[in-house]
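Morning F.,

Quick status update on the modeling queue. The single chain you submitted on Monday has been processed. Sequence for confirmation:
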Amino acid sequence: MLEIVPTGVDKWVGMQTLLGHLDVPHRALMAVGDGMNDLQLVANAGVGVAVGNAVPAVKDAAAYTASRTNHEGGVAEAFERRHMSLWAGRNACCSYASCPVLFRKSA
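Structure tokens below.
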């Protein structure tokens, strides 16, 4: 796959814009990635996760590397692990009150 983007533009730049519009701190973001186009996003998120088949640079930047690849449920593994740590009160980046976007109750 070939991805072409303008110099200085990557997923992290776009995410910063979105987080700013939503008034959500970057520490409340969990990002999962595998390729170099995900590197800055994973490196700057509050919780950066690499899937098992991620390139070494993304794995190095991540706080956690899933044991499964993106084809084997690595993203689900990351969310399951994060969900369990939040409920257990460990490594919680935010609470319901401070992070309504991530913990919004359904209407």
